[in-house]
Amino acid sequence: MLSRSKQSCVSKYFPTFLVARQMRSAYSARVKLARFCKGSEVEPLLPEDFQRLKVGARNALSPKHINSPRGRSLDHRFSMHSTMFYSGRAYCRPSRPSLPPGVMLNKCELALVFIAGIFAAFPSMYINDALVPLSTYLPYYYKGIADSAMGWLTSVSFLPSLVVTVLMAPLIDKHGPVAVGIFCCIWFVAVSVLMPFVQKSFSWLLVTRILFGLFSESSWIVQASLIAKYMPVHLESFGFGFCMSISTAAALLCFGTIPPLFSSIDLSALEGPEPEAHAEYLKLEKSILLSYWLSVAIAVLSLVIFVACSMPFTKIDRKARAAREEHLQRTAFVPALPVYINNAILPRLPARPNRSSHAFFLKQLINLPPDFWLINFGFSILLAVCESCQTLLLTFIQVQHEEITSHTVEYFGVVRTLFAVIFGPLCGILAGAVGKRPLLGCITYISITVAFVLIMFLPAWYNLIPMAIIGIADGGSSAFLKSLFSRVVGNSQINIAYAISESFLNVYQFILPPLAGFVSDIFRLGNGKSYGIPLTFTGVLLIGTIVIFISIRRDKSIFRGKLSSRT
């Protein structure tokens, strides 16, 4: 301990010494308390703590140094220190492994994480995107379907996920992503088996799409939870880009398997007043049934692969649980406390908070930082536009250009999906190599906005260029923006953050297709053409660009570039 005279001497020449020592003592006490409360996390210093430290240091300065270079240097130093973990109310967690020390995944287990993450969402993506190539032929099967009706058929599956997705977060916290993923895959198999038996009625097809949508978007939370739980921190951006883009390859599989089923059908023969009496109508119905049974086969195969790849994760969880218990037993004892604390009280404390508590869930839901909402809005808008625009854009291109037929319009969807699959992993590698994720997200927004403008003016086959740009944006959205969630949200709230993100994504995917179809019907020209579909998506993207630009400014002024760092 320093004497009073030495303390006054130290405070004269080093005005921050005493206050800083008090802050370190307070933080040390917080660490000891966290070790005593088994399973708790050590909270970083709060903004008001740094403010007290700054005010105490400034009070120790003489008045002539308040606005001097020395005082400004002191303000800058404390500003840099305070943004290490907190900046205002913006939390930026340090990069640390999700698994406890001593538990490492080998290369084979890492490969299984990638495969399980892909097939957690693959059946959902295939069943959902199978409607895209079918949208060309369904108007011939169900007479009187307008653009708005096709928009509802596309987006109705997202309606139940608006609520169910948020409720899945505590289930993943309690049972783990593997168990929830197996349940979702079984559900997809059951719903896909039901589709061939109800496809004659358009109303029952809508009901089946609603049942499918109960857990369709929950599979993406399972994928994100697998990446966040088992993937190393430096591979997180690559994991999101790779898994989500390869899952998007389900749409490419749809375009490779479904259109050949209809290649021998003469659709011009079904344009009469009574197409049901024509032989081509029976061939069309048979092809639609085969496409639904193909969805059943894909769902069953995905279930088998996901279960096979997820089994080793149970062993990893047991090793992680044992390592965590060993670490807690090694660090829980505090010499200042009675001896019986370590043996009598600590083993009875819960290892983690009770995730089943409704009050705890609501608290975790409400207390998400504002920067998460900004990034989530930008990510959800971008991905919703990329995924929901394809069906309507194919119809728009076919109507606008007479040289594009119902059999050749699928090439535009194939190009979009192919570029999404290729550039998803590449964007993940780029984000991990250079960082700058908010800036890359803003560039993606500007590029896709220009692509929608070009679709309105380019000749027929030149529209492959904007469709390729939309595919690149689809593949890069998760690598650039979704990987930022773990930087602004703590570990205890990350699954809830992913669930809220999927809920917002469902809202936009539910609203945007009917809205674009409605605008297209309103502004239809006399020749039957309308530019309402690309104009609607362009306006939405301009709003998202403004939001991402705000995130870039906050990264520079609040986070001091932490969101743009590589790790």
Element string (H = helix, E = strand)? HHHHEEHHHHHHHHHHHHHHHHHHH
* Total count of strands: 2
Top-tier CATH class of the largest domain: Mainly Alpha
Could you say which overall geometry the principal axes of the C-alpha atoms support? globular
Q: Any idea how many domains?
A: 2
Helix count, DSSP H or I runs of 4 or more residues: 23
* Known CATH architecture of the largest domain: Up-down Bundle
Task: Report the sheet-strand fraction.
Answer: under 5%
pLDDT under 50 segments (min length 5)?
Answer: 4-20, 29-50, 76-96
CATH superfamily of the largest domain: MFS general substrate transporter like domains
> What can be said about the biggest beta sheet?
2 strands, antiparallel
Distance between the termini: 40 Å
Summary of the model, kept short:
With about 575 residues, the protein is mostly helical.
